[in-house]
Amino acid sequence: MTSLAVAHSCGQEQALLKRYEQVRRSTGELVAPLSDADATVQSMPDASPAKWHLAHTTWFFEAMVLQPLAPRYEVFDPAFALLFNSYYESLGPRHPRPRRGLITRPDLETVHAYRQHVDEAMSALLEDEASADARELVELGCQHEQQHQELILTDILHLFACNPLLPAYKAPMPRGSTVARPPPLRYAYLQGGLRKIGQSPGQGFAFDCETPRHPVYVAPYRLADRLVTNREWLEFMLDGGYDDPLLWLSDGWSVARSEDWRAPLYWRKAEDAYWTMTLRGAQRVNPDAPVVHVSYYEADAFATWSGRRLPTEAEWECAAAELPAVGHFVDSGELLPRPDTAPSTGLRQMFGDVWEWTRSAFSPYPGFRSAQGPAAEYNAKFMSGQYVLRGGSCVTPPGHVRPTYRNFFPPTARWQFAGVRLAEDA
Description:
It is a single chain. With 426 residues, the protein is of the alpha+beta class. It has 2 domains: 160 residues, Four Helix Bundle (Hemerythrin (Met), subunit A) (Up-down Bundle), CATH 1.20.120; 239 residues, paralog of FGE (formylglycine-generating enzyme), CATH 3.90.1580.10. Helix 1 runs antiparallel to helix 4 and helix 2 packs parallel to helix 4. The protein starts with a helix and ends with a strand. The N terminus is likely disordered.
């Protein structure tokens, strides 16, 4: 290898090590406000304790990178594979997901020691020349941990909302009184035709479900220039939107009835006003902020009530393809969706604030091939019964999403930071 090639390789390792360290440090900062009890309790089967997230993301690097690629690596504790494997059947048995809150031992201090043990081994691995496969696995692990950073915040919000004291993850921020009311919804016309969606090779990191890039036919359509607000959602509620079965999909109506949905998750009425639980404690619902914590079924019912529909994921991606993936993410520190106050025209709030439900099922693209080895279980096994969301939210790490990014959840999910953008046929 020439000296130039060696320098290039060393530069890649150093850049990847720096990225790894930054991602791990960010996770530590997110859990810093939590007590051992905060980090141990599980509020529902779909959520996981913060301590479990800390250990699982560490186990991912241990099992996927260090054990196969670092021959001298010593496993921190063999029992952790049982406790902190999530759904990788090929890597052995797992503790049941609904019972993760029962893992009182190891304590939080031991989990932090586990993270340090793995971090030291990862640093040693990345200081040497790493193969292309190793670098890809490390980048996958970093992206995976960023997903769990967002889950830590969504799960902590649900946990604190179950506490009768409604504790705040962070101190409340005063809400400005001079914020202009968002303008009425406008619809941007987008031409149809044969388009391409998905990530191309060599265009940077992408999860396997974002590939391959492929052609789709998109009919001409119009897309709302901003997100649906709480004020508009209140109109839906006051017009009996939660009580009209003609607005709802059959399965959605059944769930809404059985779980008595009357408003977005966390909303409560008190003193003739609606309040909501946030990561900054209980707050009055801001009528001008994007509605958040609604399910696919609610989003679809609202769209039907509006005389419109949800966009397909191809429509969303075609609209976002030429836009920079910048917006209101977790680095703002606000941890709340912002009202749309941009003076510019055109599509706004496409990235950040809230994940946007699409009407597209999460399914493989034509020609899809899942990753090889244990990573094959990362996305492919979930391509059934889920709907795609796009764009990221106010608790998504910056730089993590892109126009091709496909998030997915079951249509009943409400605890995620999910909201609504409307579309209509042109």
